[in-house]
Each structure stands twice: as structure tokens, then as C-alpha cells.
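Notes from the 1:1 (GR / supervisor)

We went over the backlog. Supervisor wanted to see one worked example end to end before approving the batch request, so GR pasted a single chain during the call. The sequence is below; no edits were made to it. Supervisor asked that the structure be written out right there so they could see what the output format looks like.
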Amino acid sequence: MEYYHVSRKQGILKVIITICMLGVGFGTMIVSYLKLGGQEEKPTNTIQGMRTNYQITNSVETEEKEETTIQEKIEQINHAVVGISKIKNTESTIFLADGAEELGLGTGIMISEKGYLLTNAHVAGEKYSSCYVTFDLGNRYKAEVIWTDTSLDLAILKINGGQFTSAKLGDSEAIKVAQEVYAIGNPIGYEFQKTVTKGIISAIDRTIKFTENEQEIYMSNLIQTDATINPGNSGGPLINEQGEVIGINTIKITSAEGIGFAVPINIIKPILEKLERTGQFEEASLGIFAFDKNVLPYLEEELEFQNGIYVESIIGGSAAEKAGILKKDVITQIDDQPINKMCDLREYIFEKNPGDEVKIKLLRRNIEKEIVVTLEKKK
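Structure output shown during the call:
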């Protein structure tokens, strides 16, 4: 009887302990429930909400960062944009009709820390002539024209002494129609220096025909843009969204709104490379002027060819004439490299030196010929 009594007491004690433990468990659950506001799924939703908010915030921050980056790059390249004048101490043109043209004002871009800058030939003038270059802080230097090409409307000037902020050159062969671009320049004088206009690349490899000094002139392989370009913008850079120079603004069709042109930057790279390496550039010359295929609609003659460039004229006594190249020949290759644009031929010749030999393949009345030409120094 005593044993039964003890066992019964122990059984009752176990039941009491179990009830207490269950009570503590339920109490803990109730407290947790109340702390979470009575919503069991709240923790999961809260985490998801935090992730969503983070993604939205991060996206906004990324967009702002990209916009800031573009602005910073434009601000940085602005330090390499300069004003160019043929007349010393010329600062104002706003009250002078056709001031940019009469005073020889234009824009240039520093392309080397060593003092080389690029602009238009019609802004800089003849080789060995002088220009006055003004920087954003008002510093003014005298510069010498060391190279010029009127058919490209490009010129390179040299400022002696000092280290200069230079722009980064992009790849004009990599550009695409409809990509955003920015034009920078001094539209009507120094009062509006470093004006930035935004647009897109409207077309590439454009050819334009105009009359200058009573002569018909063709400019080919141009970049067409709708970024606003005014007369004083001549020689200023056309840049991409990476802040790289892809062209030099050159001319505007005054009879149409929103049409401007730039010379692709790649054409100048072989010249700059030689200047940086040797400090001089002796230009090799083939002695021809040729048209791209897309110029054919401008010509009166009925011409048909699939590849190559059409030789329109040959300089008397030139390397081409001595080698036997004739007018109306179609050049298809140079040193086994296909040639379909005049700028490709120019760029290749710029890499050569006077005295170098080049092998040219051409079509003459649909018969293929191969001619070896010894390049001469351009006079």
C-alpha cells in the first residue's frame, strides 16, 4: 500500500510538470505571435520587401552614377578643348557679323601631352603659319601649323614647352548609327566657349559636294550628326558617351537644319603615333585623288565597279604617274589589303615613309594589274 501511494504521487507530479512545460511553450508562442503583429508570414515578406527596396534604390543610384560619369567625362575633356585664332588678343565676336569667319576663330582639341593639337585646315591656315591658342583658364600660347590637309580639312598644330591635358581618342570604325554623341566648341566666339550640344550619329561614310574658290570639292567618309554645329565649332571634337574623341567637327550644310559633319578620328592616328615617337612627320605621297563608290552618283560618267576606289586624277610627276597608274583605274588593294574607301588608302599611306615601296592591285578596263610604287615625300 505504501508503494502504490508513492507511485501515485510521482504520477501526479509528472502530470503537473508536463502541464507547466506545455504552458511555458504556449506562452512563448503567444509572445512571439504578439511581437510579430499576429502575422506568421511577416518575416518572409519583410525580407522580400527589404530586397525589393534595395534593388530599386540600387537601380536609381546606378542611373545617377552613369549620368554623373558622363558629365564628369565631358567636364574632363573640356580642359583639352581650346580656342584658336589667327589674330592675337581676339576675345569677342558677338557684336561682329560673321565674326568667327572674319577673325579666323575656331576650336581645337589637344591630342597629346607634348603639345600637339588638332583642328580644321580652314581654321589653322597653311603649313608653317602661326595661330594663337587659348585655354579655359585664359592662358594663351603661340602655335605653329606643322601639318595640314585641305582635302581632309584637318591640321595639326604644335605648342612648344609644358605638359598639356589631352583628350582620349576613340575608334571611329566602331561607331554605330543612332548612338549618342556630343559636340564641343566655341560657336560664335570666346563668350560662348566650350558650348556642349547633344545629338546622335545620323549616318556614317557620308559624301558631300560643295563649291570652294569656284572649284567642286568632294569630302567623303564623313560622320553625319544632328548635334548642333555652328561656324565657331569648326575643329572641335565630336565625342562618344565614353568621353572619347571620334571625330573633328568640320562643316555644316547651311541650307538644312540639324545636319553637321565630322571627320573620323582614325585617319589622324598614324600621324600622331609618328609625332609622339620621333617628333616629326614626313608625309609619304602616292600622288592621286580617288573617289569612293558612293561618290559615283555625283559623276557624269557611267561607272560600275563592286570594290575599290576610282582614280579621278593624278598629280603630274608624282609617284603614281611614274609607276604607270592612270586616270579611271580602280584601285582594289594595297599590299594585299582591300581598299574600298579613300580614307583607308590615306590612313595606310600615312603609316609609310618616303622611299617605301607599296604593291597596288587595280582594275583597268576590267583587267587586273599589279603595280609597284615607290612613295615620294609630299611637297
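Supervisor's comment: Residues 241 and 247 are 13 Å apart (CA to CA).
Batch request approved.
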